[in-house]
Amino acid sequence: MDFSTLAKKRFSCRKFKDDEVEQEKIDIILDSAIAAPTAVNKQPQKILVLTDKDKLEKLNECTKYSFDAPLCFIICCDRDKAYSRGYDGKNSAEIDASIVTTHMMLQAQDIGLGTTWVMAFNPQKIRECFSIPDNLEIVALLPTGYPADDAPVSPNHFQTVDINKMVSYNNF
User: I need a surface site. Which of 46, 97, 110, 119 has the fewest CB within 10 A?
Assistant: First the structure.
C-alpha cells in the first residue's frame, strides 16, 4: 500500500476482535519503532509490551480507553537520554517518543492491525501497576489488535481543516 493510502485509511480503532496478535507482527511493529527518527538518534524511547490478559485487565484500572485490545504498547521516554537544544534547552524526548508511536501506528495499519493513540490515562497508576521507573515519562498508550468487523470510524475522522488555513508560505 502506498503511503498516502495508508495514512488516509488509518483510523482510531476502538473495537477489537479477541484474537491475539502474533509475535511476528509485534516484532514488525517494534522494528518500525527502532527505525523511527529521533533527535541526534539518541533513541530515548522505552516501550512496555502488554500481551498477558491479567496485565491488560490491570490496564483498565489506569484508563477507560483500553478498548479491551489484546495488545497494548506503553510508550515512554527518558528525558536524560534525549537531545536538548542548546539555544533554549528544549528537550526532544516526548517528541521522539511521539514520532516512534506514529511509526508504530502506521506499521500496525499496514499489516492489518488497528490502533488508537491514548493519552487519557492516570500516569501515576500506570507507573504503580506496571513498575515503570521514575526516570521514564509515560507518553502514550497504543491499544492494538485486529479491528472488529463492525469497528466504527468516528465521524470526526473525516473532518479536516482547510489546507489554506493550516499552511502558510514564507511567513504567517
Answer: 119
